[in-house]
Amino acid sequence: MELFYAYEVSGGRCYLDAEESGHCVRVLRHRAGDALDVIDGLGTLYRCTLEDPSPKAAVARIEKAEPGWGARPCRLTIGCCPTKNNERFEWMVEKATEVGVECIAPLIGDRSERKVYKPERARRIALSATKQSLKARIPEVPEPQRVKDFIQAGPEGALKLIAYCFEDPSAPRVSIQEELEAYEGADVIVLIGPEGDFSPEEVRLALAAGYKPVHLGPSRLRTETAALTAAMAVYFRYFFLHLSFGKQ
Amino acid sequence: MELFYAYEVSGGRCYLDAEESGHCVRVLRHRAGDALDVIDGLGTLYRCTLEDPSPKAAVARIEKAEPGWGARPCRLTIGCCPTKNNERFEWMVEKATEVGVECIAPLIGDRSERKVYKPERARRIALSATKQSLKARIPEVPEPQRVKDFIQAGPEGALKLIAYCFEDPSAPRVSIQEELEAYEGADVIVLIGPEGDFSPEEVRLALAAGYKPVHLGPSRLRTETAALTAAMAVYFRYFFLHLSFGKQ
Lengths: 248, 248
Prior knowledge:
Two copies of one chain form a homodimer. The first copy, chain A, is α/β, with parallel strands linked by helices. Chain A has two domains: 3-67, CATH 2.40.240.20; 75-239, SPOUT methyltransferase, trefoil knot domain (Alpha/beta knot, 3-Layer(aba) Sandwich). Chain A has helices at residues 18-27, 86-99, 120-132, 147-153, 176-182, 200-208, 223-239, and strands spanning 3-10, 13-16, 35-39, 44-52, 59-67, 75-80, 103-108, 145-146, 159-163, 174-175, 187-192, 212-215. In chain A, strand 1 (3-10) and strand 2 (13-16) form a beta hairpin. In chain A, helix 2 (86-99) packs parallel to helix 7. The longest helix of chain A has 17 residues, at 223-239. The termini of chain A are close together.
């Protein structure tokens, strides 16, 4: 199965940009009348017929819309401080998208070595991984914000978790598995710090804002591996349960 | 905590190669008499005192040996067909090492686009990730072998799993989680195919050799993500249980 991304959906048509059109028409040699599966990146799959096979601006007619296609039973937000090496963060964006995530928020922490982050490349990677892993909704990668601002802005009702490395006898940590198993909702936020960890002040603010401290197991993990481990914990906790084998 | 790797341990001494010595003496500026933690890559941590701070051939005297340091309660072997893009496979080697794996065997399948694989770089990455994630045993990355040969050579008593994508009504698949939870041993082998999947003949041979077919959840995962997802399933199944919080 091959998915295409429409930058615009209107008037019963899906409009592909130059890159998607070229891939569809030049590389895969689709012709007018071919069936196409097109996502809008917001959660809907459109079953389409290719109408205008322009290699720069292809247009497909919508035959059927499937809202919520490939959607998962948990909304996961990962707030993560980008790594010094951009590729490591972008790799995590790809992998977290594959196993399922709603939002990956780049955060700047007190101890972040990377104080500036441009999300454009990560957004393109998220789009590509969304299509590759057969989902209709592209994870959001918002502009970077400070850890402290992100903590204050968190929504009500979500399970809020913070993973950090330093010892804090006043806040004993259980495993992320245990917290996920005890939670019956479907909104999870996980905070992952930079290479130098969160500052004690950031952890204090997070705990005051309702974040629960968790650990990610016995290994010392790199920042990007920690973020992916959290995504995997959610994948195993939520997504396996709802699996209709062989449906996709 | 910083670990060094000794290429040789003998006569109560750990011997560091030029790269480790340079890092120890030039970069971290260790001096004679400093305490050093040195691994042999085979599973033992040596608590040492730096004796000869040569930046090309440092020697440390062993004060205490801790066999099995950082060892995990499950021996996981991943047999995985290297990806067309070497970096993707090497990335998986790094991440699987971080969460814990004993052996990553590069395999050549009937449908492998990559027919040749040189494991030297992956071995260096495995060493680096072993030190970074605080383990004493470096995962083995053997020379590549054919999928069919690997299947025939599997050990007795292990839980043998094969993940593939095509539909096979004669062999319904359960999730890797379910198979791991039903297994009480500590030797797990997981087979992950190339981009083009295993051939039906390879799957048939594997099933005949006692491999159980599993799925890795509802997402369509890239080869390297599938291999890491298997490693994560083992990490969550085995390693969290034995966690003494705050010990490391």
